[in-house]
Design goal:
elongated; mainly beta; single chain; eight-stranded antiparallel barrel; two-stranded antiparallel sheet
């Protein structure tokens, strides 16, 4: 009996060792490797609309709104602005080309005491003059370099500025005196040029925030040129 049990144990051990050896000879299962994720590339191409707000400062000659015959005089103006933006652009590699227009309400004001003169000769009047830029519009080209969702750009084009001024006589000849001061108020849209730099950040595939600086030179009557600096922030939605 003991001999039979010994033979049975030996046979079982032999079978177990044979099964383990066969299992060891089987090829191992292939190792699965997940595909390497590719970073998404931001796309600036599309039409967009948005809004902007900011602050402007510069100088203005209000007398040119009364008459184009007076010598150049100016004073400082400053104030806020808010408006809307529309544009379109296309991206080729790192380069982004586009066109942008905006129109906004402004409250850029200033005031001073002025003595109108012609060729350095006074006109016998002293005025309290107040001036206001009430609207600003631009139509510009944009050229930018895209670093994924960050866009650095330069911009330039035309500008249109709505300016108004009014004066009150405080000494000498009164406003409305024929031949001296036929009018002491005026308002007009005047053309100019605008140029600047900006930075735009796309925080979703369609939404972006921007900050920009624009320099605007507005041509008046005669030799008058008003200058305005603008710092604006804005948000755009791209279709």
């Amino acid at each position: 009996m003991k001999r039979i049990l010994t033979l049975a144990v030996a046979a079982t051990a032999s079978l177990a060792l044979g099964s383990y050896s066969n299992a060891a000879d089987l090829p191992s299962a292939p190792t699965y490797k997940a595909p390497v994720a590719t970073a998404a590339v931001y796309n600036w191409t599309g039409f967009y609309i948005g809004g902007n707000a900011g602050y402007g400062w510069g100088n203005q000659d209000p007398l040119v709104l009364f008459s184009n015959r007076f010598d150049r005089q100016s004073f400082d103006i400053s104030g806020g602005m808010i408006g809307g933006t529309i544009g379109a652009q296309i991206q080729q590699g790192y380069v982004v080309l586009g066109l942008e227009g905006d129109l906004g309400w402004a409250n850029i004001t200033g005031s001073s005491t002025m003595t109108p003169s012609i060729l350095g000769i006074g006109q016998g009047v002293t005025l309290n003059v107040s001036s206001k830029v009430s609207a600003i519009g631009t139509a510009r080209a944009r050229v930018g370099v895209a670093m994924n969702n960050v866009l650095f750009y330069a911009t330039g084009g035309g500008a249109f500025v709505k300016s108004s001024a009014s004066g009150t006589s405080i000494a000498g000849v009164a406003c409305g005196t024929l031949g001296v001061l036929p009018d002491c108020s005026g308002s007009s849209w005047r053309p100019g040029i605008a140029a600047g730099l900006g930075l735009e950040w796309g925080f979703t595939p369609n939404w972006s925030l921007k900050a920009e600086y624009l320099y605007t030179a507005v041509v008046g009557s005669g030799v008058s040129t008003d200058r305005l600096n603008m710092v604006r922030t804005g948000i755009n939605y791209r279709f």
